[in-house]
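MODEL INPUT / OUTPUT PAIR
PAIR INDEX: 1
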Amino acid sequence: MNLTYKRATIEDIDILTETRIEVLRAVNKLSGDIDMSEVKKQSYDYYEKALCDGTHIAYLIFDENCFVGTGGVSFFK
């Protein structure tokens, strides 16, 4: 295993959004037919703002060129 960590940028919004939807489906035991389009849009909008203003920091983890995970911190005042 050769893990590399990359700080997420605005260019990574799609992978962050898709991963968030995948996690929400798994944690809440939601089937694939549940419409998550509004959650996806809100998540995308959140990441778009928060990654730029520094209120969210995320890292993407890769094994070679294969995405294997992510983690992040949201900062609130």
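PAIR INDEX: 2
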Amino acid sequence: MKLAAHKKSGISAEIDAYLKAHHEIGWFSGAVIVLKACKTVFTRGYGMASLEYQLPNTPQTRFRLGSVTKQFTAAAILQLQDLGLVDVHAPVSTYLPDYPHGNRITLHHLLTHTAGIPNYTSFWDYTQWMTLPTTLEELIARFQDLPLEFEPGKECRYSNSGYVLLTQVIETVSGQSYGDYLKEHLLQPLGMENTGYEYPLAVIDGLANGYQFIDDGYLKAQYINMSVPQGAGGLYSTVEDLARWNQFLFDHGVGDKTILRDKAIATMTSPLVPKNPDETPHLFYGYGLEINKQPKHQRIGHGGRINGFVTNLEYYPDQDVSVAVLSNVETANIEQISQDLAAIVFGEPYSKPTSEVDPSVYEDYIGTYQVAPEFQVTITTQANQLRIQGTGQSIFNLYPTSETEFFTWVIDLRVVFNQGSDGTVESVTLLQNGQETVAPRVD
């Protein structure tokens, strides 16, 4: 269904009001684009790309993408397969003969997070060395000799390490650096002139500074050396370029430009592997993408998070709608914002940002909720501030988006309090990293 011109105007005003509200209470700074049937419904920037120099965010501002990078890495692998240079079902040892476990792991395993390789960004000392320059080989050496966490193909567990290995496969097979390969074979053919790989210490014109929002103020985000993310999270882009990318993936190319065969794109965007079939049976991985087969609106995309930046790029096939949200404030609740923007376009209910909830309702939420056999979350209050703490974990403040829905600044977590027919809270729904868990109240 196409939107009439007057309807677009109404949608634009509603989106703008929603994002202004998020920005005014400190929850969002960045840029947004929303498209329907390849036509721009809305695009605008909010807040500052540089607080120090008072440079505003615009649709042309460049942002670090974090894990949105992974779909570009996956596309490069599939392009090499189209050329007959790799086979995604071949073992890693075919291309990296010296890699331990390489005869047990395929490129398909790496692409779908089913290889069992420990995730290097979760290592206990990661924050100690993420500021240091590293080579691709040195980075791989940090995890290559560790035992696999499970037999390849038997489980699914998110791992940036797999995409670092895919980076090395691309460089080995193509004879080019990862950044040069993507520029020549993916980005330039699609006219994505404002997208690229951020080489360490490079000066990127128009790149936003990254911040975090703490105690009603913005602070510069912790530094990361950009040799560390590699093909797991090392790209930068604009919302306008990401719109072109989604047009390529889901609308058979940008104009007459395409870089992958239809079969490769179909594979990349298909639900190949369930993320957690017991807890989230509607969530799957494709190649570099997450597929959410929720009953109402299926969506395909990926989010990203890297020091000072949080990002999301999604496509809703049943409505032919794309949403790209890029923020240079790492504490922004991007997943919720993205879904709310889509809901506005669909004419459906959405969570309106609010910073004022009567603290008296918090008394109904205080209690303990059973997430797993040996893991609980406890809800408490302190000085009219709602708080959450998991077993053996730190306490985080919860901030409202509505009277029953809350989020944290520090981690990507939303908490929804579910009421029974008598109005008492019976459970909480925890939404984190694309996974949804319902925890019944036990106290």
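PAIR 2 NOTE: The first helix runs from residue 5 to 24.
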